[in-house]
Amino acid sequence: MSDAGRTLPRNDPRQYDDLAGEWWRPDGAFAMLHWLAEARAALVPPASRPGALLVDLGCGAGLLAPHLAGKGYRHVGVDLTRSALEQAVAHGVTAVNGDVTAVPLADGCADVVAAGELLEHVPDWRRAVAEACRLLRPGGLLVLDTLNDTALSRLLAVRIAERLPTVPRGIHDPRLFVDARALVAECARHGVDLRLRGVRPGMPGLVGWLVRRMRAAGRPGATPDDRPDATPGDRPGATPGDRRTATAAGPTPRIVPTWSTAVLYQGRGTRSG
Hints:
The chain is of the alpha/beta class.
């Protein structure tokens, strides 16, 4: 990624400081993270006990928080990027500045561990999985989503996506993508029976979003939230209800199941014991 006169290597965490203003723009560079956060939260049931803890590994700016409202969890987010954590705190997340491969929290402390769009950014994803499973109490739930280590995934998520005004260039290093079968096996080693399903953005909303992004990219200095047809869902700080509001270009994209895990997939599993 090139920004402010410097070039960063792929998957460099400093990119998130450069893109700090994009986190809460649902039609911005991190738009798909909003869609995935909503889909991930749908896998999380209401808390089963008072004081239940959800640990959000790689929480970024706390995009999961609005979708957990009312479910009864104390939401703790772990991330390396301080500029993102500052925004997460503003959305009710208890922030922990730390590495997901060495989380400074106690064994078995969490009722739920979420790892959304995280593992494909971690040089040693197996250590991150071990930490996620360590944090879970017996019967605790692991939910995650990541990119598969396939030729199709590398083609779509890197070669094609980075040629469009949609995904920041260099945000992914395809060498870190996570083989689905290896992930299931690694979770099993740590006592979590992980079940996978493929997911993708729904096409009507995706096409509308691409149109909006391309229009914004064609206007010098424009951002998705200052274009003439912007709605409340495009503004920083928008609520989930605002984000579900249809726009003139089409409905807000939603993540839907698909038959294949070859590109993007979700995982959900419970720790034994």
